[in-house]
Amino acid sequence: MTPDFVGSALQICLVMALAPGLQGWIKRVKAAWQSRQGPPLLQSYADLWKLLHKETLLPSSTSWIFRATPWLVLGCMLTAAALVPLVSMQSPLRLGDVITLIGLLALARFAQALASIDTGSAFAGMGASREMAIAALVEPALLVTIFGLAVPIGSTNADAIAAAGLASGFGAVGPARMLALAALLVVAIAETGRLPVDNPDTHLELTMVHEGMLLEYSGRPLAALTLAAFIKQTVVLGLVAALLLPWGLDAPLPLALVVLALKLAGLGTLLACIESVTAKLRILRLPELMATAFALGTLSLVAHGVFGA
Amino acid sequence: MTGAAVGIAIAISVLLSAATYAAPLWQPAPFLTLGLYLDPLAAWFVLLLSTVVFAVTLAGIAYGRAYDHHGGSRLAALLNLFVASMLLVIEADGAFGFLLAWEAMAVTSYFLVTHERREPGVERAGFVYLAMTHLGTAFLTVAFLMLYAVAGAWDFASFHTAAKALDSTALDLIFLLSLVGFATKAGVVPLHVWLPLAHPVAPSHVSALMSGVMLKIGLYGLVRLIWTVLGGGPAWWGWLVLGLGLVSAVLGVLYALMEHDLKRLLAFHSVENVGIILIGLGASLVLAAGGHPAGSALALAAGLFHALNHALFKALLFLGAGAVQQATGTKDLESLGGLIHRMPGTAFLFLIGAAAISALPPLNGFASEWLTFQGLLLLGQSSRDGWHGVAAAVSAGLLALTGALAAACFVKAFGIAFLGLPRSEAAAHAPESPTMLRAGMGLLAASCVGAGLFPGVAVRLLVGVVGPEIPQRGPELLTAPGGLLAPLPLLIAMTLGAISVMAAARLLAGPASERRVPAWVCGFALQPEMSYGAMAFAEPIRLFFRAIVRPERVTEPEHTVSPFFPSRITTHASVRPVFERHLYGPVSHGFLRGATLARVIQGGNLRLYLSYVLGTLVALLVVATR
Questions:
Q1: More exposed terminus of chain A, fewer Cβ within 10 Å: N or C?
Q2: B512: which chain A residues are within 8 Å (Cβ-Cβ)?
Q3: 3-class state of residue B258 by DSSP
């Protein structure tokens, strides 16, 4: 149970390298739905590189909170990236569990919401207000689903849940885990700020949530926040894959890497497809969506009681 | 203050040695011994009390100066009496001494609450507080008398022996009576109504003590009675406590979000956190009833650890609110803003408290909520047919909801008060708070960080209280099957990660250039009125949960020329006080009606009253001689 720091650093670098690519892939799939060619797969890397060299503009009313937030958020996401078993049966940084990971995401969200209010701008304040309200709907659904997976095996540790899924053979595609997968997908859509919860492509002030919080950022801090958002997307999808599609985690490393890339691309394609065929929900309808996820999470536990796996 | 330091030392030594000390002090009557008693459970609460009192006293040196000319000495004397009576409640050996100190605590805190009695609303708040606290004491007295009737002595050891002889109906009744009594003091929904009235009107260091410590005394009583005296009970006791905890937690935080008075907001958060503590206690009772001593110990430890943590960060936040009120003369969020530039130290310390209460890693609120989640996990595993699992998962979901809403609420409280542009002249020219006040806050903030980074150390102190079943290892939190929380290495990993990326960016692209520019508000100059206010911030949540919080809004357009061109629109938004109106309203109306009926026999004539006395005497004699 000692943490593997070299492994952690390697996994973090892997996620950092993959995350913008996943974003590029999702954009390509969406472009295909819209009969466009879309940006090149590596465009997100180029965007980050460009932002890195730009001047940083600080709104005049801001304090140290606005400056510190991008790096805190990035630090949270990097740590989160080492808490998920992505290419092996054990997550390299063995210092926490799924609840710790949820706590890290909450810390990042808290800091970013404060930084938005720090600007004094109404758009940023609106983004912060909506982000926190949506989080209040997402977190219960997430926790219920995690508990649905954790209670049968007695641990909230992602490694243990993944191992139990692998060990159960065909049980891993049983009704309980499929219901949990559906619930987690809804949660993943909300956590990654995608349609129908948030629209990642818009700067129209009436609809934006996450983009609203980024509005006053520029240059290197914006690069940090954008990279953090990409990493979060990869980590959330990686978590879904580890918890519910654990096959391939026990394969040798090169094969496990290929499997990981396939799983991420598959889940990314799914998100892109959902995003292409749904319209954004009115913010007042979000409780219904999240209540559905909550119910699915609870049902997964009931199904476990009934069907046994 | 020295007393408090001694208190900390004694408490820690008792916790480490896990011994029990008892001292019969005084025997005013043959059947009555007033003694002192210090076992690990009491010591845990002495530790909690001493730490908070030490910091609050430090801050009070500066904060109390504002009261120098309106009864400052009276305030200080009452404060000392209040602390002493709380200490006596914890250390009382026996129900008689317990109730005596309990009432002393109620009376001194009443006078502290009504210290500024000329301010509007203070008298009513004091009255509601006094009425509610006496209601609670009445229930407690009945419960204790029932035990005394069997035990024949007042001390808790005899009570424990007596409780074993009682049948289950009597035990259930004692449990329910004492639950009502202690829940009133702890501010559990629906008995919380006094709390959001009393805490905001008291001077802030008093609120810090009341919210941080006095509510915990109520919980101490509950643990003392159910665990030590009754020795646990059937599973439904636990489910009831767990349910009350969930309701308190969710409603407390929702009502807090609807507030924009900083101290009322904090008061509602006390309701929430007492709820979280009860979740741990309830899970522990259920697990104990089901024969899972290890799980029960872990859940109890979670509840008690959260009690300490809440005391630390809530006292810190109340002191911060007091600092803001002293600097700006207001506690209304809508007229604050930008204080981080004027009061950087206060802002930083308040931020630590805000992050801790929002259950964010690596602070102490997260550590104890993490442990509570683990307790719920064990609860979920404790039945064969699986319905415990569903109940535990839904409880965990509601606990997560509470955490997320608390984070939203403290983004609002800290963001609107300390960040952005100042919304009033007073906020624009606020002075930094006095050094002693910040020192007190700093002590509490350091404790929050310490308990957050080394939760294993705090939980190890609890071994004497809950039993040796909780797994231990170093400074980390551990649960039996592979659960581990190691906040310090986590923090180091976060820092290292952020710094290395920062350094890499610098290596790749050179040092960043920075420029200050006005924020973009569509080409206008940024005005404070444009920023998001506290009410606007909470609006989505108000709408999401409108079925629970029942928002009410009155909009009055004024127009001079035509109704289509209003010259001025006034809007009043409020939340319907459901409990006050639908639960307490009918009760108090009933009492008033009863009082009106009773007035019929009161003629105001002395001879009439004398004849009543004679009549009663005769009636009693007739009854007695039959």
A1: N
A2: 55-56, 219-220
A3: coil
